[in-house]
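User: Some background: our group keeps a shared notebook of sequences we're curious about, and every so often someone picks one and asks for a predicted structure to add to the entry. Today it's my turn. The entry only has the sequence so far, pasted here. Could you supply the structure so I can complete it?
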Amino acid sequence: MLLTGKEKLERMRDGRIVYLGAERIDDVTTHPAFRNAAHTVAELYDFKSDPARRAELAFEEDGEWFSLYWKQCRTREELALRMLALRKLADVTFGMFGRSPDHVAGMVTGLSMKPSVLDALHPGFGDNLTRFYKHARKNDLYLCFATSPPSGVRSTELFPGQQRDDPCLRVVAEDDQGVTLSGMKMLATGAVFADEVWIGNLTPIDEKHKAESITCALPFNTKGVSLWSRRAYESTVQHELDYPLSYRLDEGDCMLVCDSVKVPWERVFLHNDGVWSRRMYIETPANCYANSQSNIRFWAKMSLIAGLASKICEANGIDKIPAVRELLGRLAALEATIGGMVHGQIEGWEAWPEGYATPNRRFMYASLNWCQEHHTEIIDILRTLLGGLPMQMPASIDIFKDPELKSRFQRWWGTANLEALPRMKLYKLAWDLVGSEFAGRHQLYEKFYAGNSIVVRNQSDREAPWKEFHGTVERLLNRVKAPEFK
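Assistant: Of course. Here's the predicted structure to add to the notebook entry:
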């Protein structure tokens, strides 16, 4: 099925527990901290369920239609269609929603293409995964994940003599019906809008902590599950014009807290195996399908940044200056680079696992590394072109409430290239990309969403054909003849 925005909003009113500070929020679709972003998610669902876009954003199987990001691709052509669909979805949020519904869906789809990996570890767990994939696909679920232990809190002793339970989420009991979980996981991005959470591990787990290796899926209204949100950026924005990104594109980040949460065995996919709790994503297309979406989403974001930089320069009358054109050319080259890297993953696709098609893993990991290394530079170029212009703008559009202030603003803040109000809108948008709290969160997100850069480069190291590289060196060395001295 293809869910509509109205149906998605209704699902968010499912009895989940969300804490914003000490406040418990019962309905994220109406609360001023989350309602605008909730409707952005609904907009995504309306966009992809529109019958006019069905051929571009959905696929048919056994008489039913499903969102294209659930597609288990078997050919290069299917990978290309999936990539174009992900780009169209990313454009809806201008590349600012990192964990949109197509991200974790890609991970689960990739796992479902090789469930034998899980069955080999524990008979029946692969079947559990296959059933869950079909359930999520059929019901057009928005999945998020929580796959890292809370940072810096493993010690059970805070101060001398002060003890506590280890807060890392773990299995604390099991019986014939399932397992019981307690503890915390980070970072459940998009959780306040999603339908279910995938609990797992994308970082290594030592065998002595194998109880933390549990991999399962839970609806958010499961008893004992709660979400503890960071400050929601839209909560203090009165007017969209003042912070156009914060106002409706804050996807949210939460700590997932489980307090004696019961998970039935049919929702468990891995248990008591620290090594494979991470390796399962690498030995299947899971990591590649999910993170190819990240690359595509970054590409969409680059289009926004490059276009904004150019319009700012035009508005400020500096767009013909050679030094400015050089910086704009740099941004255009960077946008084309990530676009080429995305297309390269499709053109260099792999026939893996048997019978399926996967974006080129080496090219995908290289793209992840590229995005991490260049995002700060990209934002800094935009900041350089912007200069102090945002500081010249009034604090808020509410000056328009006063006719005299409005008239004075329109008279003095306009330029020969742009009237005052459109100029204000432009610079407020730019500030929300380079200087606001929302912008700061994105700086952090782009640097760490795929893990520390060391981890990402280790992925490239693992996938690199070192023997082939060595062979190239040896082939050259074999041509070099040592002289014969008499």
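Suggested note for the entry: Residues 286-315 form the longest helix (30 residues). The chain has two domains: 5-279, 286-471.
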